[in-house]
Design a protein that fits this description.
The complex is a heterodimer of chains A (133) and B (89). Chain A has 133 residues and is mainly alpha-helical. Chain A has a domain of 90 residues: Helix Hairpins. Helix content of chain A is 63%, strand content 3%. Chain A is elongated and about 60 Å long. Chain B has one domain. The termini of chain B are far apart. The chains are: A mainly alpha (133), B mainly alpha (89).
Chain lengths: 133, 89
């Protein structure tokens, strides 16, 4: 019974990680790729670690697995946010299907602070911005 | 009927390795540096999953300690790369 639970959790985790990798390969721009990977990969890893905890069934292993899951849940969004922000400053090209870029002109390019009103004229956007067509 | 260890070794690990190969293709092709860093981050996360699966396949719980260390180093690496990319602009 526990074997079936362990195997099912491992299979779910592995499939979610495969979906994350396929999304990383096929999504059209950086932010969609990050949207595919950060969530699915974290869920897949968490599922596999829960499977490890169920398989061994010892207090030490379970606490270590839970600690790893909590650490992943805490750090994955932080790393993804920092990376997306850095990519936006670098002027990563948005996908052709992008309709609206809410951040355009809102970042102070000198201090790297986000304002709630437009502070840059439209011509001062980061390079490589998607053209409104 | 295969045992759980065989299932982990012959079904789960190949799936994870295929996923790592797909992420590696993005690492090679990625048009910009952040794309490559995202691919590396995903490969690190896949490494944590592979270690968990290998712990089940070999019945050794010690691999979980390595997984914790890899999670720490992966986070530090991603944050350092992001800081470097943002400062470079």
């Amino acid at each position: 019974m526990l074997d079936v639970l362990t195997g099912g959790l491992m299979l779910i985790g592995a499939l979610f990680m495969l979906v994350a990798a396929v999304g990383l390969l096929r999504m059209p721009d950086l932010f969609l790729r990050m949207s595919a990977t950060t969530k699915a990969a974290t869920l897949g890893t968490g599922s596999i670690l829960i499977a490890v905890a169920v398989y061994f069934g010892e207090t030490g292993v379970t606490s270590r697995a839970l600690a790893t899951i909590v650490f992943l849940l805490l750090t994955a969004p932080v790393a993804a946010h920092m990376l997306g922000r850095a990519g936006y400053f670098q002027g990563v090209k948005l996908a052709d299907a992008t309709l609206i870029d809410e951040l355009a002109g809102r970042y102070n390019l000198v201090t790297h602070r986000l304002e709630s009103r437009d502070i840059q004229p439209a011509s001062n956007e980061p390079a490589g911005e998607a053209e409104p067509s | 009927m295969m045992s759980l260890e065989e299932f982990a070794l012959f079904v789960i690990l190949p799936i994870l390795v295929v996923a790592a190969a797909l992420a590696f293709v993005r690492l090679l092709r990625g048009p910009s540096l952040p794309d490559r860093v995202v691919a590396l981050d995903v490969m690190n996360t896949l490494g944590i999953g592979i270690m968990g699966t290998y712990a089940i396949a070999t019945d050794h719980a010690e691999f979980l300690d390595v997984a914790i260390a890899l999670a720490l180093i992966s986070f530090l690496g991603t944050v350092a790369f992001a800081y470097y990319i943002e400062r470079r602009v």
